[in-house]
């Protein structure tokens, strides 16, 4: 145990942890939304994220950027990032919708047992990642260095970079937007109603299938944002990039209380930070185990998560 | 759809006829099948399995790779499917990290027996096998303990994480699992043949195939008794309605944990046999995709039915290997194994929608699916758009 490493770099570990945690949180939103409404772990969500990372890369390649091109000027940079973002969000959301329509909806129509949904979910996940794996020959792909990292200011001895500010800022904006949408808008009320009681909601005139589709779209959009941030920050993608992120994001969602939007944000940030402390304490090799161990311990002692489970607020 | 139902009709008819036959006839039939399976890896026998077309020969055995080795690998897969069937099919729990237990079994044997291991115990292979089974079982209880009390779907993601964590640990840990270098020099199973040479050598896969075939037969008999016992009835009750089972006095947590532990033990045993044949293991032997393949095997064959698990396991492993040889015959160069995960992932999705009970269904489980389908809310049956 390396306490010097942990306490010596405490501020740096915290800020980089928050940065990673923000990406987990955005992916965790997808798990939480779907779980809140359908009570289903959408295993294919990690692949929804993966599709986003690839489509953003392809957009940039189409715009003429590659791994060796130098960082663009401000104007073209904004265009490139926004184009990548738009494409990634649309691609991720469409992937999520396709999975819902092709795999889950037929099962709901047949009143299949929960086990069938889970099996289909994992099947869909592997179909997506394998088709990308075969299509890309399982190679990792580097990203154009659109926004070079540079420190902006120093906080408690930790350098805060422009990327960290961007990632945290975007995550907070998306989070607040989604939270307001679900809690204030008419469609959001539908989501909460179906989450509380699907049958009663249907009797009250809520179109259940449309709400479920909307939930997949929202989760996909958030995963698309997460994919773009991942591309900009970590600079590579691979057909199986979604697996670990998905596992951690799910752990984050359970940590905050699955079905709870604010819980997903809290859980994501917390997991990112704890993960970094653990890697400081035990060495980088152990970083990826943290989320998993945390998940098991949490399920033992507080399975409802930190903030409790509630997409529809009051629920038995 | 008509084609499938016609086929199922024929299959069901065969089954009814088979069940109606006198017990002696059925025993003879089964004995013939077992004998066939035992002599299958011999070249003088399997060479005749096929028929000539023109100057070519259409073979039912694999022409690209050594048939006995393929048979061994298939048998490994069948044993895994039979083990996972207990968890998924009988108890209705989803275990997505079944290969994790296989890895635990293989690594336990490797660490206890190999002279290269850190532990330096140098046990013989046979002594390490029970320990491997026990360790796999204990890891199953550790995983299942906290998760089985909760909703079943948490078990799925925890087991998925477990399998990947085992692999990551094996790949990164230099001290015990020795990372990518792996653990070499794992001893073979004991025994000397009539000619004084070791029974289990490196030249031929045949003895290993016979070994695992024997293990499969023993396990199947044990499973059949288990399913028809109090434990098996408890599993069915849990699968059909957990709350009702609990109210009727079935200790559901206990029996779920049993199913999970028994599944894990079979996985550990398979890993131990694999390590004994391979003599070298590293983290690459335990890719996560294989967990999904085993699951696909169980689903494809028909969860809840031992015969189904066997058929499913044989198809998922044997078919891609065999197709490589068929590709040669028609002059197409393609590696079916490359597309294995993709294809069986699709198969799983399609099966869940159109034939959730599998190719060789368990009657009771098929009836459960049909019942639920009838209960489907009418508003769901007719899309409201």
Automatic annotation (TrEMBL), chain A:
Transmembrane segments: 22-41, 48-65, 77-103, 115-134, 163-182, 211-230, 236-256, 263-283, 289-308
Lipid bilayer topology: Multi-pass membrane protein
Keywords per UniProt: Amino-acid transport, Cell inner membrane, Cell membrane, Membrane, Transmembrane, Transmembrane helix, Transport
Subcellular localization, as worded in the UniProt entry: Cell membrane
Recorded family membership: Belongs to the binding-protein-dependent transport system permease family. LivHM subfamily.
Protein's name in the database: Branched-chain amino acid ABC transporter permease
Organism: Micromonospora solifontis
High-level lineage: Bacteria, Bacillati, Actinomycetota, Actinomycetes, Micromonosporales
From TrEMBL, chain B:
Membrane-crossing residue ranges in chain numbering: 27-46, 67-90, 96-113, 125-148, 208-227, 257-280, 292-319, 339-355
Topology of this chain in the membrane: Multi-pass membrane protein
CDD domains in the record: TM_PBP1_LivM_like
InterPro entries, sorted: ABC_transp_permease (IPR001851), LivM-like (IPR043428)
Keywords attached to this entry: Cell membrane, Membrane, Transmembrane, Transmembrane helix
Chief location category: membrane
Localization per Swiss-Prot or TrEMBL: Cell membrane
Family matches, as PANTHER family: HIGH-AFFINITY BRANCHED-CHAIN AMINO ACID TRANSPORT PROTEIN BRAE (PTHR30482:SF10), HIGH-AFFINITY BRANCHED-CHAIN AMINO ACID TRANSPORT SYSTEM PERMEASE (PTHR30482)
Protein name: Branched-chain amino acid ABC transporter permease
Organism: Micromonospora solifontis
């Amino acid at each position: 145990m390396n306490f010097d490493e942990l306490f010596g770099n405490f501020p740096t570990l915290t800020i980089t942890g928050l940065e990673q945690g923000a990406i987990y949180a955005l992916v965790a939103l997808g798990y939480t939304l779907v779980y809140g409404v359908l009570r289903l772990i959408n295993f294919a969500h990690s692949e929804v994220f993966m599709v986003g990372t690839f489509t953003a890369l392809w957009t940039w390649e189409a715009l003429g950027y590659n791994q060796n091109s130098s960082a663009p000027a401000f104007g073209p940079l904004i265009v490139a990032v926004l184009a990548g973002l738009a494409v990634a969000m649309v691609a991720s959301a469409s992937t999520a919708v396709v999975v819902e329509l092709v795999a889950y909806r037929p099962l709901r129509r047949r009143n299949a047992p929960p086990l069938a949904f889970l099996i289909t979910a994992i099947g869909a996940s592997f179909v997506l990642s394998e088709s990308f794996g075969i299509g890309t020959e399982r190679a990792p792909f580097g990203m154009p260095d659109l926004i070079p990292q540079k420190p902006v200011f120093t906080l408690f001895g930790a350098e805060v970079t422009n990327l960290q500010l961007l990632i945290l800022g975007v995550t907070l904006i998306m989070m607040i937007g989604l939270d307001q949408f679900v809690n204030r808008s008419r469609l959001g009320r539908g989501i909460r109603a179906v989450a509380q009681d699907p049958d009663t909601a249907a009797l009250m005139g809520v179109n259940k299938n449309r709400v479920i589709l909307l939930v997949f779209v929202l989760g996909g959009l958030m995963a698309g944002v997460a994919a773009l941030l991942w591309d900009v920050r970590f600079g590579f993608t691979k057909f199986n990039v979604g697996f670990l992120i998905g596992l951690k994001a799910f752990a984050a969602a359970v940590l905050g209380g699955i079905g709870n939007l604010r819980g997903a944000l809290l859980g994501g940030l917390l997991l990112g930070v704890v993960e970094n402390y653990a890697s400081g304490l035990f060495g980088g090799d152990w970083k990826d185990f943290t989320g998993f161990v945390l998940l098991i311990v949490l399920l033992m002692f507080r399975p409802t998560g930190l903030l409790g489970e509630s997409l529809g607020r009051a629920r038995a | 759809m008509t084609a499938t139902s016609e086929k199922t009709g024929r299959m069901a008819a065969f089954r009814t006829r088979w069940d109606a036959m006198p017990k002696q006839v059925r025993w003879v039939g089964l004995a013939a099948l077992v004998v066939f399976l035992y002599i299958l890896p011999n070249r003088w026998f399997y060479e005749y399995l096929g028929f000539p077309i023109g100057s070519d020969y259409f073979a039912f055995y694999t022409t690209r790779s050594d048939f006995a080795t393929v048979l061994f690998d298939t048998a490994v897969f069948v044993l895994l499917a039979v083990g996972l069937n207990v968890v998924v099919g009988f108890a209705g729990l989803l275990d997505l990290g079944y290969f994790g237990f296989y890895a635990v079994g293989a690594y336990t044997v490797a660490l206890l027996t190999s002279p290269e291991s850190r532990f330096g115990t140098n046990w013989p292979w046979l002594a390490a096998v029970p320990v491997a089974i026990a360790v796999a079982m204990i890891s199953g209880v550790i995983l299942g303990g906290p998760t089985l009390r909760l909703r079943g779907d948490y078990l799925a993601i925890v087991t998925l994480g477990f399998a990947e964590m085992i692999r990551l640990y094996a790949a990164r840990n230099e001290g015990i699992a020795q990372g990518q270098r792996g653990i070499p020099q794992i001893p073979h199973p004991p025994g000397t043949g009539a000619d004084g040479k070791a029974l289990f050598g490196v030249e031929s896969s045949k003895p290993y195939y016979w070994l695992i075939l024997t293990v499969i037969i023993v396990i199947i008999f044990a499973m059949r008794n288990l399913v028809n016992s109090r434990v098996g009835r408890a599993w069915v009750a849990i699968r059909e309605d957990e709350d009702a089972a609990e109210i009727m006095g079935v200790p559901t947590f206990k029996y779920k944990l049993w199913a999970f532990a028994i599944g894990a033990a079979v996985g550990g045993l398979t890993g131990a046999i694999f390590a004994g044949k391979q003599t070298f293991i590293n983290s690459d032997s335990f890719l996560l995709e294989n967990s999904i393949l085993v699951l696909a095997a169980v689903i494809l064959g028909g969860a809840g039915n031992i015969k189904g698990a066997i058929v499913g396991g044989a198809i998922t492993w044997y078919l891609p290997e065999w197709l490589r040889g068929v590709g040669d015959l028609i002059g197409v160069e393609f590696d079916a194994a490359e597309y294995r995960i993709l294809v069986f992932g699709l198969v799983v999705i399609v099966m869940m929608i159109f034939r959730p009970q599998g190719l060789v269904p368990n009657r009771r489980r098929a009836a459960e699916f049909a019942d639920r389908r009838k209960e489907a809310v009418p508003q769901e049956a007719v899309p409201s758009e």
